[in-house]
Amino acid sequence: MSTFKVSRIETRPFDGQKPGTSGLRKKVKVFAQTHYLQNFVQATFNALTCDKIKGNTLVVSGDGRYYSKDAIQIIIKMSAANGVRRVWVGQNGLLSTPAVSAVIRERVGTDGSKASGAFILTASHNPGGPTEDFGIKYNMENGGPAPEGVTDKIYENTTTIKEYLIAENLPDVDISKIGSTNFSGPEGEFEVEVFDSTDTYVNLMKSIFDFEAIKKLLACPKFTFCYDSLHGVAGVYAKRIFIEELGANESSLLNCTPKEDFGGGHPDPNLTYAKELVQRMGLGKNSEVEPPEFGGAADGDADRNMILGKRFFVTPSDSVAIIAANAVEAIPYFSDGLKGVARSMPTSAALDVVAEALNLKFFEVPTGWKFFGNLMDAGLCSVCGEESFGTGSDHVREKDGIWAVLAWLSILAQKNKEKLNGEKLVTVEDIVRQHWSTYGRHYYTRYDYENVDAGGAKELMAHLVNLQSDLPQVNKIVKEANSAVSNVIKGDEFEYKDSVDGSVSKHQGIRYFFEDGSRLVFRLSGTGSEGATIRVYIEQYEKDSSKTGRDSQEALKPLVEAALRLSKMQEFTGRSEPTVIT
Asked: Mean pLDDT in the chain?
């Protein structure tokens, strides 16, 4: 058994180590600076109480992006030096973000130990590679992201840090092989266990969904299926679940070999970046091959999802509403009913209508999964979602891309259980259009302006806040943009008081409400690694079922024009077009 010593390494603070919506994200070259990652990890250890660190178990893994393997070895050595008893690492350092949450909540070691938290190495849907992004975040003992009280303390510690602890002479651990390695240190034995990345998560999925029903659907010759992992960590789970457990054909999977640079692509499951899937599903230019009935995709760390039907895109806002409306009937986990539902503030109000119709508790929270986690821990929420392609439930405390795909396959299996031997199948598009006819349609789109000048972005937001004090002027501007737009009746800046812990989150987005129920939301995103990202959310509700079949961009064009004129987007940012439209 190797023996290690603890070294105290002098350091000094780095500027800008404040965690965003979910962790610290920067370019690899920033993280690779001497002491940079070590400072943040030590600041995290210092922010946690002793009983969450000393003698406990931590999980350390991520989406496999460039620099992950180096970071894992550094965090293992620092964990040993800070009194952690054992570290669990997914084989090859791979664990999806929802799988990390499942491991914290579900996995029990051979000695009865459970994890008290995790370092997740991911920049989510951001690109990877030597010149691209890396990220790190800490999840708590409930499996969810650290709350703002902890992340604020982490940031405060990064501004004053003077030293960090590390077991410099601890040899690197081979994370490619399953098994345990033991070491001896000043505070006793230290163990690193490399375990199968998929077992805990797959077993959890099998306890939630009726795999036999989904298997019958996938075996039906009339039903065709496609899943794109965008060369992210989801590929590990896709092969295990869809091929080994559910019997899908290998040809059903796209880009399911995880790569450090995500194959040179952008691992964001949307219509702009998931190009191969979009083409295969008949939504790209010159799509001539007959598309599959169902398509799904995940982002780099497999917590986001995109759902597609044949030549049909399901908005994330509609997706969570449809899952909630069908969950009790289609998913065994919810057979006793839903405790409640929740959405992020920028997400369309499609879920609100379902909640009202089904008499469910409903919550509107800021962007960030930690807010859903508080509701779930209090037993108030079963299903939740964000318009930024995040959907999930209380089975873990993270959004879950593969869970969302399995939820949709479960709904399709339930709708088609009597139709597998001859009748025309109920399609994804059928389900969505039936939902619109029942609940109405929330026409919805999001315009992203990525990597804009941070100063200009702040000026734009300040301009929008100032305008809210003069609604006549606001209405003059929107009417000049397009006379078809109804009047603005209210404007505010979203502020949230957590109903569980009483914490208050301010400046969560600027909102304008229109007389006809339409809504504009402007928000600065916390997921980028440089510059600023401005997101504009445009929504219009249509209850008349004869008018729910219009093209979304066509229906929303007047509101888009109003939003761009109101915000002076081009004047403040220099951008005449958004980077991404979803």
From this structure: 93
Q: Is the pLDDT of residue 528 over 70?
A: no
Sheet of strand 510-514: strand arrangement: 488-493, 510-514, 519-524, 532-542, 441-452, 580-581
What pLDDT, on the 0 to 100 scale, is given for residue 287?
65
> Phi and psi at residue 559, in whole multiples of 5°?
-70, -35
To 10 degrees, what angle do helices 428-439 and 401-415 make? 90
Domains of the chain by start residue, with CATH: 2-197 (3.40.120.10), 201-439 (3.40.120.10), 441-581 (3.30.310.50)
Is residue 331 very low, low, confident or very high in pLDDT (cuts 50, 70, 90)? very high
271/268 Cα distance (integer angstroms): 9
Distances (CA, A) of 503 to 191, 366, 371: 37, 12, 10
- Please name the residue that has the structure tokens 């006549």: 472
Q: Which of 116, 124, 197, 518 is catalytic?
A: 124
Number of residues assigned to the chain: 582
Please name the residues in contact with 440: beta carbons below 8 A apart, sequence gap of 6 or more: 353, 541, 542, 543, 545, 548
pLDDT tens profile 185-208: 998 999 999 999 999 999 999 999
Annotated active-site residue 410? The verdict is: no
**Residue 286 confidence (pLDDT):** 72
